[in-house]
Amino acid sequence: MSRSFLAVSFAAVFALAGTLANAKDTFTIGLSNGWVGSEWRTQMIDEAEQAAKEWSKRGVTVKTIAQSANVDVPGQIAQIRNFINQGVDAIIVNPNSPTAFDPIFAQAKARGILVISTDAEVSSKDAIYVGIDQKAWAMQSAEWLAKTLKGKGNVVAINGVAGHPANQMRVAGYKEVFAKYPGIRVLNEVNANWDQAQGQQAMQNLLATYPQINGVWVQDGMAAGAWRALTDAKRSDVAATGEIRVDFLKTWNDRKFNSGASVNPPGCMASALNVAVLRLQGRQFKDGIFKGQYGNALYIPIPLIDSSNFQKTYEQVKDKPGYISVTTVVTPEQAEQMFFKK
After folding, report:
1. What does pTM read for this prediction?
2. Where are the alpha helices (DSSP H) in the chain?
C-alpha cells in the first residue's frame, strides 16, 4: 500500500472520527510522559501547559492533566487508561513504544477521544503524530559530520535508550547517511541512555579503545558528557555533534567547539497541543498532509545549529538557565497554515 494512499486514508479517518468536540470552547487534554530522565522532558511538559494557557487569549479554555513518571509500557498504558476514564477530549503522549499502544488508542478512539503522539511516532491508525521526523533529525546532523570530515574518517556513535522508537529512527538515519560516504568508517556504536554522565563514560571508553577517532555522532542529552571527555583527553582534533541545552551552548561558545546540532524542540508537545485544539474545534486537515512510515505524521521543522548561525542562536538563549533547551513551538496560527484547510 502506497504512502499517498495511507495519507488519504488517514485524512478520511480523522475527517469522520468520533464525536470531536467542535462545538465547545473548553477542552481537557491529558499529557502522558513515560520517562522523566532529563530536564528536556520537564521543559516539554511545561511548554505544553503554557501553550494551553495561551489559548485563553483566543477565548478558548484548555485544561491539562499531566501524568509524568518513569514507567514501563504497561505503566504508560495505565496513564492513558486513566485519561480515558476521566473523559478527556484529547490525549497527547510521548510514547515508550511505537506499536504497543494500538489497543489502548483504539479504546480512546471509540470514546471519541483524539490521540496525538509526539517526539516518537506510533503505528496506531487511531492516532496521529505531531513532531519532528526523528530520522531526518539524525540525517541532518550526520550529514554535517560527514561533510565536516570531508567524507572520510573514523567515526563512533553514542546512542540513546535501546529500543526506544525515537532512538531506533535516529540510528537508522545516521547509518543511511554514513552509508553514502565510502570514506566514513563507523568503528563502534554504544548506548548511553540520553544521560550526560553515561555519555561521558562511553566517550572515555571509546577513546581508550579507538585512539584514531576523527568524529563522534552523539545524540542530545549525552553530547555535553562526550565533549567533556574529549576536552579532558585534549582531543581538539575531533569533530562531534552537539546538543541544544544552554549550558552546553555556553561551553561551545567558550571553547569554540567544532560542532553541529539538530534541534529536537521540547516545544513539540506544545505544538501537538495546538494541533489538537484546532482539530477539536472541528478544523479539517489538508488533503494528503500525512507523512511518515505509518502514514499518520505531521512533521514540524528541524533547525540546525552550526558555525553559520551559532552566535545568533546563542545570543537569544545565553541568559536563560543552563538546563533550558533551545526550542520552537508551532503556534496555532502556524498550525492552521501548515496543516489545516481554510
Report:
1. 0.86
2. 3-16, 39-54, 73-86, 102-110, 134-148, 165-178, 196-209, 223-232, 246-255, 268-280, 310-317, 332-339
Say yes or no: 50 and 33 in one domain. yes
Q: How far apart are CA 118 and CA 166, in angstroms?
A: 10
45 and 165 assigned to the same domain: no
Residue 65 DSSP SS3: strand
CA distances, 140 to each of 111, 239, 262, 301, 329 (Å): 39, 15, 7, 12, 20
Q: What percent of the chain has pLDDT over 90?
A: 87
CATH number for 210: 3.40.50.2300
Half-sphere exposure of 227 (CA within 13 A, CB side): 27
pLDDT of residue 5: 39
Identify the sign of the CA torsion 194, 198, 204, 207. negative
Question: Considering only CA atoms, which of 278, 331, 322 is closest in space to residue 301?
Answer: 331
177 and 120 in a common domain? no
